[in-house]
Structures are given as C-alpha cells and as structure tokens.
# Entry
Amino acid sequence: MSRLRWLVEDQEVRPQDILVLSYYRERVRGLAEWVRRASIKGVEDIHIAFDDRDTHLGQRGRLTFSTVASAKGYDAYCVLLASANQFPTDVLGRANFYVGCTRAIEYLEITGTAPHGLLHEAQKASQWQEHGSDANAAVASPAANAILGAAPA
# Structure
C-alpha cells in the first residue's frame, strides 16, 4: 500500500477520490487496518463499504475500501485494485476483475504479491499491447510495470 501513501501524500490525491478494492473481505479488512495504523496524512476516516452500505462515498478525508462485488455501481477517480493475484481465473473471477477495473474514472493501478492468475494475464496483455504480437517481448514498459507490476499490496 505504499502506492496509496504516494497518491495521497506526494500526488495530493484526495482520499475521497480513491477507492481501494480487493476480491476477499478479509483482504479488504486487512488493508483498511494497515492504513489505520500507517496514519497517512490526509486520511481522516476509513470506510469499509460492505460493512456500512448506507454511508455516502466522497466524504472529505474518507478513504473507501470495498470488495469488488460490493463496489458495483461505485466509481472513483482513482482505483487501487489490490491483491489481483487472488482473483479466481474462472468466469466469476474474470467478471469481478472487469468490474474492479471499470470502477476507475481516470486512474487504475493493479497490484498483487505474485504474478500469477489474472494479474499475470493482465501483465501479458500489457506486454502484448506495448510490443505488438512479438512473442519474445519479455518486459513491459516502465509505465506498464508501474501500473500492472507485482508491487507489494
């Protein structure tokens, strides 16, 4: 979640404009707890969407965390799709990955702890797009690595 700190503190993205998503509830709770303990400057409150569905998004200083399943209908300028390697590669997992990616209005960052599953497929798609159909392209561009890299979540 160092990217979250970077977004809020260095890039001055307002916490209310960020939505942090993950596949599993336990992971969402763990990420939210990490942010509480990290005391990121500007993050005044943590909102876990599936615990409190009646709370409005976008309240000043409030950072929202959610599972992808609970985020249907939500949009945010900045979406961090965390632990993307945990998404199942079945039809439901792919549908949820798509939903998570499409919540972002302007900025999407996909992270995971290991490059396998859908995270690996997203990296490969990025490489293919960057290098055309060259099957020998082994490394994505620095920009693609920054967005799709297997950064710690």
